[in-house]
Specification:
By secondary structure, the chain is α+β, with helices and mostly antiparallel strands. It has helices at 4-25, 75-81, 154-160; strands spanning 56-62, 65-71, 86-89, 91-93, 97-101, 114-115, 121-125, 130-134, 141-142, 144-150, 163-168. It has a nine-stranded antiparallel beta sheet with strand order 3-11-1-2-10-7-8-5-4. A hairpin with a 4-residue loop joins β7 (121-125) and β8. It starts with a helix and ends with a strand.
Length: 170
Amino acid sequence: MNPAPPRALARLAPAAALLLVATACTSDSPPPSGPASPQASTAPAATTSPGRKAAMNIRLTLDGHHIAATLNDSATARDFASRLPLTLSLRDFHQAEKIADLPWKPTTSGAPEGADPKAGDLAYYAPWNQLATYYRDAPYATGLVPLGHMADGGTEQLATADEITIEAVP
């Protein structure tokens, strides 16, 4: 017997259950009308799965230069974001990344076994409990958990930076 069809069904089951719950929780009654009805939201629509938070915008300050960045929606990135603002001393590693020791151990719940970092990536290197920020592409590393990515242009500033401040953007 080919095990692929049962595995495919097993991956679809949680999505089907979520769809059933969402459908059961919706109301068939029309929305209220008239002057008392609430105003439509002007906020952009969420682009993430139901029940998950959207990615978080952050700002990196590297030697006085502000760089926009985004954290992903992983448990590790959310734990990291909960500790912001954060200022860390950076040191160069393998002429591809800047690393910094973290003052706590972020969760790695649900994290991949490793990652293949690209220039501009922000990651947590669990074996050494360090933030890793990449100004060049680097090879796959076991224990590396992707956190997010900085905007274009940030890698030039990162390559020479000695300190990083990371803040949430309101």
